Amino acid sequence: MKIKTFVNIATIITATILCGCASENARYIESGGARSIISTNQINMADWNSASTSLVNEILASGAIDKTGLVLPAKIKVSRVINRTSNAIDTELLTNQICIALNNSGKAIAVSDDATTNELAQYEAKRQGKTIGLPKLTITGKIIEVRESNSDLKEVTYTFFLQVNYLGKSIWMGQKQIAKQSTKSAFGF
């Protein structure tokens, strides 16, 4: 019983010391920049930024959108990006950044998912005696994680797969892998 009491007191003292060392010196940093917190437990902003930049650059460098012969900017619709990680993530952090970059490139323009936006566009087209064509390009993808560890080291690799499709066929495929490691603390946390 004395040992259990000692362990409980030691735990309380350790927690108090650790909490007392905490500081609330908040500051602004560049989102996803070099001073961002890196975690092997989740995808952070630096990962989203790196994956989207790399994948967009590959899409544009490939010339795949130009080769379709579509009038540019071509309409593109984000279909589905499947999350195969252990975390609940918002894949729009990736796809929105990709759509913004494609819109800014002048090669493609993202079609909205917003019902009101689409309803107003249909109304205006009908009023002018026109129709709105469906997008011919789609983006699909998947995010996968692989975790490994040994007694001292924990590693996670996130693989971002992306595919651009034209009339049901893949015209471009790419991937970006981001691997992160962390060492386990002396306290086992």
Can you give a write-up of this model?
The chain is of the alpha/beta class. The protein is built from five helices and five strands, in the order H-H-H-E-H-E-H-E-E-E. Helix 2 packs parallel to helix 4 (92-105). The radius of gyration is 24 Å and the shape is elongated. The two termini are 26 Å apart. The relative contact order is 0.16.
Low-pLDDT windows of residues: none
Range of strand content? 25-35%
Mean pLDDT level: 86
Distance between the ends: 26 Å
Structural class given helices, strands, pairing?
A: alpha/beta
Radius of gyration: 24 Å
Give the strand tally: 5
Main β-sheet, spatial strand arrangement: 2-1-3-4-5
Percent helix range: 25-40%
Summarize the main sheet: 5 strands, mixed
Q: What's the shape?
A: elongated
Count of helix runs: 5
What letter string, H or E per element, gives the SSE order? HHHEHEHEEE
Topology overview:
Layout (H helix, E strand, L loop, with lengths): L1 H19 L24 H18 L1 H4 L6 E11 L7 H14 L2 E3 L4 H13 L9 E13 L3 E14 L2 E15 L6
Parallel strand pairs: 1-2, 1-3
Antiparallel strand pairs: 3-4, 4-5
Spell out the key features of this protein.
single chain, 189 residues, alpha/beta, five-stranded mixed β-sheet, 5 helices, elongated
Task: Write a short abstract of this structure.
This protein has helices spanning 2-20, 45-62, 64-67, 92-105, 115-127; strands spanning 74-84, 108-110, 137-149, 153-166, 169-183. By secondary structure, the protein is of the alpha/beta class. Strands 2-1-3-4-5 form a five-stranded mixed β-sheet, with helices on one face.
